[in-house]
Write a structure and sequence with these properties.
Membrane topology: Multi-pass membrane protein
Protein name: Bile acid:sodium symporter family protein
Oligomer: single chain
Largest sheet: 2 strands, antiparallel
Helix content: over 70%
Number of domains: 1
Organism: Streptomyces celluloflavus
InterPro entries: BilAc:Na_symport/Acr3, Bilac:Na_transpt, Na+/solute_symporter_sf
Subcellular location: Membrane
CATH topology: Na+/H+ antiporter like fold
Length: 338
Amino acid sequence: MSTEQTNQRPDPATGPATPARPAPPGDLPASDRAARRAVTVFPLLVIAAGAIGLLWPAHFTGWAPAVPWLLGVVMFSMGLTLTLPDFTAVAKRPWAVGLGLVAHYVIMPGLGWLIATVLHLPPQLAAGVILVGCAPSGTASNVVTFLARGDVALSVSVATVSTVLAPLITPPLTLLLAGQFLDVDAGVMVTDILKTVLLPVAAGLLVRVVAGRYVDKVLGALPWLSAVTIAAIVLAVVAGSAALIKDAAALVLLAVVLHNGLGLALGYGAGKLARLGRPASRAMAFEVGMQNSGLAASLATAHFSPAAALPAAVFSVWHNVSGAVVAAWMARTERRTR
């Protein structure tokens, strides 16, 4: 592996490789400039897809069965961005990574249940909000952490391990917290996560190990492939629940904004409380507050209904917008303190 490669860490699914140490803004390699563009363009692309699904739902209502396959493409892209050192890095910082995992799988599921209960959400929407909370870390969290001048290595470690452990954690958590709203078949959900998440990630990682020199040449294109694919997922989900959106849009948006905002704040607070330092605390904020909403949308569509997938679709847009804004504010604060 070349020096250039070892100095980079990838963003799972929607982000290109990003430097382990933030470089000066005026001296960013092409992959990092692509990361900045992806963070800006991705929410706009998803908003456009959602608008199309809302305005012309009849043309896309048959797309729902394709959602798990589309998610598989996203997760395969994530696997292609990973390298074996990303996994060995976990062993070097077990305390910080373990704290990140606990914070992620405690704070966001708990907030999802609390928000669904306090807002008296209808059962389908409540289950959808909780399922978003029980999903692994978000697909753009590593790029956003980099832009915020946070600890990218920690961000990659937490995101990777949370995704690998999702088949073991997401289904029972969903059963525990959402079971009072809807029937949850945790066993079938485990199988679905294995097929749509773990196997594609493992396949992508294997391809990267075997044919790394060829994969490196297309890394810059992977964020855009994933962005288009996630936009297609949002399009399918929104088209399938267009009527409900018109009735419950404000309520769902309120739930999503609270869920994401409180997750970012409590994730940062957990890092500060554990005295991990400012860069690691920033990584914790994004690893807790940003969710793999594509997975949540896929599971909600398959196990509940298109209506239950609506919170995931809205979250997919909002957490990228809020993440980019918070990252910009953190980076600005960092420059002012120097």
